[in-house]
Amino acid sequence: MTDDTARHSVQDVWLSIPPEEIEGLPEGLNYLFWDGGPDGTQPYPGDPARCGVYVVPYMKAQEVRVGPLAGMTGVRLVQTLTAGVDDVVPHLDGLPPGVNLCNARGVHETSTAELALTLTLASLRGIPGFVRAQDRQEWQGGFHPALADRTVLILGYGAIGAAIEDRLVPFEVARVVRVARAGRTTERGPVHSIEELPELLPVADVVIVVTPLTQSTRRLVNEPFLARMKDGALLVNVARGAVVDTKALLAELESGRLTAALDVTDPEPLPAGHPLWSAPGVLISPHVGGPSSAFLPRAKRLLVDQLVRYVNREPLRNVILTTGAAGV
User: Fold this and answer.
1) DSSP classification of residue 97
2) Which of 83, 116, 215, 294 has a CA 20 to 30 Å removed from the CA of 327?
3) Which residues of the chain have pLDDT under 70?
């Protein structure tokens, strides 16, 4: 028996959604439920060494999410329920070679794109001010910019970026500028390389950030980046907080030159008393791009499809990296 066959025969599957709530799971695997529990102290459902597939718990503390990995000597597939995997990758070093890390592409596009559009519209149309006026029982009108006729730049044009464009089009935007790590052509038009940002930023009324967090994107939205944005532009971040240099953004907000809508921050959670809370022109939501009623149906469909592929030894979806591969 080869090492690959022996490890593939490990049958325990740790699911972070109760298996009885997922229709269509393939037979022949031993499904165990574990999500860390409400306080992160839930006992393991079995021996981590017998786990062949680990579905990382969603919306749990990082130490809970990655805690079992050190003992998972027989694991073959680590499946996240998030699009980003930056918090999991550093904890794969101790795993055997050949372990596939897969993300949740296809799960969060709908919910995250909805929130990106919500934050954009709410910021442009002055909704935060209306809510505060309502709390004071004041009828406070005013003139606010529309999304119509605006140029929107999407930074990180992958599946979520495309879903955001789907929702922008009916609002009669003037133009969507697509930017990704590498340039390419799509049915909708060109996707510009990230190297073109200095020329593209000055034309954008709204910049929506949805790029994954990597070494090359950490603090990508820094002082020079923000300085290239046009006066009065709106920055929307539904990616990761560390993609944006908080200090540089604060300076632009406090000057009144830019506004921002942030679903993610650096640090996160944003502590009480942090100046970002009270900065002018900023709308903050507490990292809720993914968790909505759209999450569970799509997560369940992904898990069923992925586990069918696993059982049948078919190519897995959304493979981000394989341990032991060159460059990993």
Assistant:
1) T
2) 83
3) 1-10, 326-328
- Rounded Cα distance between 58 and 64, Å, is 10
Q: Given 8, 108, 192, 287, which residue is catalytic?
A: 287
3-state helix vs strand vs coil in the chain, percent to 5: 35, 20, 50
Residues 6+ apart with CB under 8 A from 91: 66, 69, 70
Task: Please state the pTM of the whole predicted model.
Answer: 0.86
CA terminus-to-terminus distance, the chain: 26
Q: Is 8 one of the catalytic residues?
A: no
How far apart are the C-alpha atoms of 33 and 15, rounded to whole Å? 5
Q: Are 201 and 225 in contact (CB under 8 A)?
A: yes
- CA separation for the pair 94, 73 (Å, rounded): 8
Question: Are 58 and 79 contacting, i.e. CB atoms less than 8 angstroms apart?
Answer: no
Contact present, 38 and 22 (Cβ < 8 Å): no
DSSP run (H or E) holding 115: helix 109-124
> How many CB atoms lie under 10 A from the CB of residue 31?
18
For residue range 134-148, list pLDDT tens digits in order.
999 999 988 999 999
Residues in the chain: 328
C-alpha angle with apex 85: 2 to 179, nearest 5 degrees?
Answer: 120
Q: Checking phi first, is residue 50 left (phi over 0); if not, alpha (psi -120 to 50) or beta?
A: alpha
Task: Find the helix or strand (DSSP H, E) in which 64 lies.
Answer: helix 62-66
Token pair 């529309």 is found at: 146
The pLDDT assigned to 5 comes to 46
Contact 290, 112 (CB under 8 A): yes
Q: Which token pair is 167?
A: 């929702």
When computed from its CA atoms, the radius of gyration of the chain, rounded to whole angstroms, is 22
Q: What is the pLDDT of residue 324?
A: 87
Q: What is the tens place of the pLDDT at every residue in 72-106?
A: 999 999 999 998 898 899 999 989 999 999 999 99
The H-assigned helical ranges of 125-215 are 127-135, 159-168, 197-200
